[in-house]
Specification:
Layout lengths: L1 H25 L8 H13 L1 H15 L6 H29 L10 H25 L1 H9 L1 H24 L3 H28 L1 H24 L5
Helix pairs in contact: 1-5, 1-6, 2-5, 3-4, 4-5, 4-8, 5-6, 5-7, 7-8, 7-9, 8-9
Length: 229
């Protein structure tokens, strides 16, 4: 009975990220990526949980010096830590694996790669939350947290592909600037996402809606403008 309950919770936690992965994968029309490469990225995203947890625990020790300043504490705990640490590790995992990958030869490839890494992390994070908090947590996270990670991954992937495009044309400075944006832009979007969710509930829903509109438009444009690098 316990095994069945655990299996149900794990399944419920995995369905949302896998569905979003499938949606993005299906948008890659010109040249689909090898399954082995994609699943290696997914599991690298899963393993990214380890350094993220370590760094966030260390960062938590630092922000404990600010409990008497609630706004500063909230900013550090929910903007800086999740935004810059989580997106920084995902960015590092992504770039180390795919930057020199021969299969990275189309513009939309970067989006697919980043989403697999991002949702690999989101999947294991969701499983841990659901196992400790129950099915209701899976529902809430399916609505807000999982799409959030997918959107941050899409933004990261678009920037990564633009960096690769610039590098392939000898534009090294532009490539480096876009690589920095591939980390910083998702980090800021993620940080604002968590900060508003915790401290400014009504404003968060406006932000969430605008982010969905922005990323959906960017994703459609990236799929439509896919081309060889």
């Amino acid at each position: 009975m316990l095994i069945h309950s655990v299996s149900f919770l794990v399944g419920a936690a995995l369905v949302p990220p896998l569905v979003l992965i499938w949606v993005v994968y299906r948008l890659d029309k010109l040249e689909r990526e090898p399954a082995g490469l994609l699943w290696s990225l997914f599991f690298r995203g899963v393993l990214a949980m380890v350094p993220i947890l370590v760094l966030e625990l260390l960062a938590d020790q630092f922000i404990d010096f600010f409990p008497w300043r609630p706004l500063v504490y909230l900013f550090l705990a929910y903007f800086v830590i999740p935004g810059f640490i989580e997106e920084g590790i995902k960015y590092r995992v992504l770039v180390r694996r795919v930057w020199n990958e021969p299969q990275f030869n189309y513009l939309f490839d970067g989006v697919v790669y980043a989403v697999f890494v991002s949702l690999g992390f989101a999947a294991v994070e969701n499983v841990l939350y659901v196992l400790t908090s129950g099915f209701s947590t899976a529902v809430v996270r399916a609505i807000f947290s999982i799409p959030g990670h997918a959107m941050f991954g899409i933004v990261m992937g678009i920037c990564l592909s633009r960096a690769k495009w610039a590098q392939s044309r000898g534009q090294r400075e532009q490539a480096q600037a876009m690589l920095r944006r591939a980390w910083l832009l998702p980090a800021v979007l993620h940080g604002a996402y968590d900060f508003l969710l915790v401290g400014f509930g009504s404003l968060f829903y406006v932000y969430f809606l605008l982010l969905v509109i922005y990323v959906a438009a960017a994703l459609r444009r990236a799929a439509r403008e896919d081309a060889p690098l």
